[in-house]
Amino acid sequence: MRSVRDLYIENYQYHLPETRIAKYPLEQRDISKLLVYRNGEISDDKFYNIGNYLTGFNTLVFNNTRVIHARLLFAKPTGARIEVFCLEPTKPADYALSLSSTGETEWKCLVGNLKKWKKGSLNMEIEVNGTKLMIVAEKRDVTDGSAVIGFRWDAESITFGEILEASGHIPVPPYLNRNDEPIDIIRYQTVYSTLNGSVAAPTAGLHFTPGMIEKLRRSGFKMADITLHVSAGTFRPVKSDTIGGHTMHSEHFIVSRETIESLYNNGIIAVGTTSVRTIESIYWLGVKLLTNKFPDPDSLIIRQWDPYHLKGTISIKESLDTILNYMEKNSLSDLEAITGIIIVPGYDFRFIKGVITNYHMPGSTLLLLVAALIGNRWRDVYRYALDNDFRFLSYGDSSLLIP
Fold first, then answer.
1. What predicted TM-score, i.e. pTM, was given to this entire model?
2. What are the start-end ranges of the E strands in 24-75?
3. Residue 248 pLDDT greater than 80, yes or no
4. What is the C-alpha separation between 274 and 277, in angstroms, rounded?
């Protein structure tokens, strides 16, 4: 029997015309088109009617991460423009602590036009809440296309989060082939985002409005939150011939006790692939805790191929009970961990019964996740979307996929 690592990426390609990529959001979030795949049938509607197709399910899981203004544009005295794209904090490594830092912090960054930054620091004068200050960027280490950048500023009352909010740019996806614009500040953000940390939006949630969420809640649906800070790795293309040659990016997530307890239910629909990856990772965290697979029990990490070689016969209840006992023992109200899980055809879903998601790049890990859920019918879904003028990628239309 072939390993899932031997899956050929060429079998998950399709032709996506440039004209089908949505460059801008629609005027209203919830008037986007909705493709429904359920019981093997395909139909379409408007997104605001999605509740009509969720009968038999009781819980929607949302990723409440918030996109930060992660791109800082510096200008050297020579006129050269240097873009510093903040990826993840390193000192302090915690997102909340780093964004609330005053005076200094350190981040792993991508640096555009790096060859023009030979030495010295970059300086930018900005204004935050009426206070003028100078932010200084210092290059401390460069490895494999990224750099560790130290930031310091001369206003102790101003946090790094406030600096990014005031002077940074929204990191719109590279395939939009445009700079960020004022509309992106609001629309490249879900209406329920609360915790800063992502450099890319969990785009399946962009279709929801407060009114829709309230209507679904009144209809009896439970709303569960997770927080997974989406990294720039979500845009990393698969360049190998087989998926086994691809290194999946890792991301930090936080899940509350209340959300974990909701997983005992059997009717969970994930809003977006980030919610899928987080919720499914929880099962494997329980397995690794139960079987003592963590060398350091304080560092909870699910690695890329863990689900394909760990003992998967442990019941959902045993896994969840183990996690809740671990949290109680350590007086934790929230579970924090890192996941590099890759979900491809051959994966056995533990919690997720369906997903709300946009349309993904050909040959991407996100498309493989869709194929893992609905099998080869992904081709029919994407063909239908292309034939019926659906808009693709981050600002595109939506689908509800229930195998």
1. 0.93
2. 33-38, 41-46, 59-63, 65-67, 71-75
3. yes
4. 5
